[in-house]
Amino acid sequence: MRFTLLLLLLPALARAQTFQDSIVQCNGIVLSKDSLKALPSVSIEIEGTRRGTVTNERGIYGIIALLGQDLVISSVGYKPQRIRVTEEMREHPKALVTILEIDTVQIATSQIRIVPSNRQFNHDFVTTNVSDPAQETAQANLNPKDLKTLSASVPKTAQETTSKQLSNQASKMATNNFVPSFFSTNPLNILNWFKKP
Predict the structure, then answer these.
(1) What does pTM read for this prediction?
(2) What are 67-73's contacts with CB under 8 Å, separation 24+?
């Protein structure tokens, strides 16, 4: 009976060992390319899952992933990066250094013209030719009920917008992952960690 039970459990034990062998603890630091300063609150997400974490105030993170999964590292205003979890990362654990490049966006050119006087401004404002569809769109956008609804849901400043986005990311990606204590206690430990062969 015990022998039969052991034979039945062997495949499950082998699968459990294989699964355990594919687990990788990924630790790293995220820096800005232009200044090489640590970036806090950067999202680290395991692609295709709902698991992730964010960097602490020193730009450091820790997350557990499986071999073959991709870590997507992203932050507002920076180009995202993808890191594949490899066998080498499991066998030779080292802190990953990720350098994010600022993502520049080109907007359409605008011309700014100085109006010499209030009289000239009033004249230009009154005589500006605005097409009928543009006027209808403007009137529809100024509906007081719609404006009140929009103002309740839209943050007022860029700081509020960023704060809201970061808190949404943090709550979405919060997991039981941790940043190893040897990183968070002394910054010199990070440098020593990178020097390890």
Answers:
(1) 0.48
(2) 67/22, 67/24, 68/22, 70/46, 71/26, 71/44, 71/45, 71/46, 71/47, 72/43, 72/44, 72/45, 72/46, 72/47, 73/30, 73/42, 73/43, 73/44, 73/98, 73/100
